[in-house]
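Q: How would the C-alpha cells look for this protein?
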Amino acid sequence: MLRKVAEEVVGLLTEGFDHDDPVVGRLFPDVYPDAPRESAEFRRFTEGDLKTSKIDQAGAILASLPEAGSGEVRLDPEAAEAWLRALNDARLALGIRLEITDDTLLDYELDEAILQDPSSPRVFQLSVYSYLGYLQDSLLTAITANGRS
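A: Here is the predicted structure in C-alpha cell form.
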C-alpha cells in the first residue's frame, strides 16, 4: 500500500506536471499568492530543486521498503527525515483528492463512507489517509524519542 502511494507521488511529479491540478498547487504553493508574476519568477528558480527533492524523498520510501509481506523497515536518522517529508506530501496529496479540510472529522467521514458502501474506493482511500497519519505520528514520536536519548 505504501509503495503504491509513493509511486503515485513520483508519477504525479514526473508525468504531466500540471500547475492547475489542486494537488500540485498544494505541494508547490504560490509564495506570493497576490503577485502572480513574482510567484512565477520564484517558481522558475526553485521548482526544479523542490520537485527533485520530493521525488528523492518518495524514492527513499521505495528503496527502504521490504518485498511485499516480508521484513521490517529500519531507518537511519536521514532516511527517517526523508520518510517523514514524503509521508507528509503523500498525505497532503490524498487529502486534497478526498477534499479533507481542517474541519473534517476523519472518523465521522470514514463511518459515513462505510455506511454508504463498505467496499467503495472512498473507504479505502480514507483508511489509507488515516494510516499515513498514524505512520507520520509514529515516526515523529520515534525521531523525537531517539533525539532525547
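Residues 2-148 form one domain.

Residues 36-64 form the longest helix (29 residues).

Upvote if useful.
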